[in-house]
Amino acid sequence: MKIAICPGSFDPVTLGHMDIIMRARKVFDKVVVAVLINPEKHTSFTVEERIDLLRRATSGLDNVEIDGFRGLLADYARMRGATAIVKGLRAVSDFEYEFQMALTNKKLNPDLETIFLTTDSEHMFLSSSIVKQIASFGGDISNFVPPCILRDIQERLCQEVGEK
Ligand code: PNS
Q1: CA geometry: angle at 2 spanning 65 and 8, to 5°?
Q2: With CB atoms 3.0 to 4.6 Å apart as the test, which of 3, 20, 44, 131 could cross-link to 88 if both were Cys?
Q3: Mind listing the pLDDT tens digit for each residue in 3-20?
């Protein structure tokens, strides 16, 4: 069985992430969407919330699993028996960092390939930070996040702004 990992912070999941997950699941037998657990990094959503949002956004997709991971991605991929990491590439500005990560992961786990999918042109500008910025100013994010979790994301981000 060919298993791929789609790793990320997913703070929160966007339609850009969903596009990459949906395309990866057509190429691989199984896709593990792996949420980085890093207590030192500030995130707007807790890891439980991010996993829950992803589970709801991908419910009904039989070959997609949502999980959390700590530590090195290369180790996690080995533990899951994955042969590839799948990532979306938006613009040239993404490339340098992604290239560095791909080379590092290859050194740490030589059996692991990193595969880049070019982001759908509709999502080129989209990121979790952009979604958070728009929502924090009361803007409409309905074109940017999965409809089934739109309300929860909006409410949670409004709550965060209120707390500041
Ligand atoms: O959505 P993000 O924040 O761009 O995702 C980054 C992620 C989770 C893919 C990356 O930070 C990661 O793989 N972290 C795990 C630590 C690791 O393996 N580092 C070495 C590779 S450079």
Answers
A1: 45
A2: 20
A3: 999 999 999 999 999 999
Report the predicted TM-score, pTM, of the whole model to 2 decimal places.
0.95
* Chain centroid to CA 22: 12
Q: Please indicate, yes or no, if residue 139 is contained in any of the structural domains.
A: no
* Predicted pLDDT at 159: 75
Domain extent at residue 48:
3-124
101 lines ligand 1 (CB under 6 A): yes
Q: How many domains are contained in the chain?
A: 1
Q: Atom 3, ligand 1: which residue's CA is nearest?
A: 9
Residue 129 included in any domain: no
With cut-offs at 50, 70 and 90, classify the pLDDT of residue 91.
Answer: confident
Candidate from 50, 73, 79, 93 with most ligand 1 atoms within 8 A of CB, to mutate:
73
Q: Is the CB of 9 under 6 A from ligand 1?
A: yes
In a domain, 45, yes or no: yes
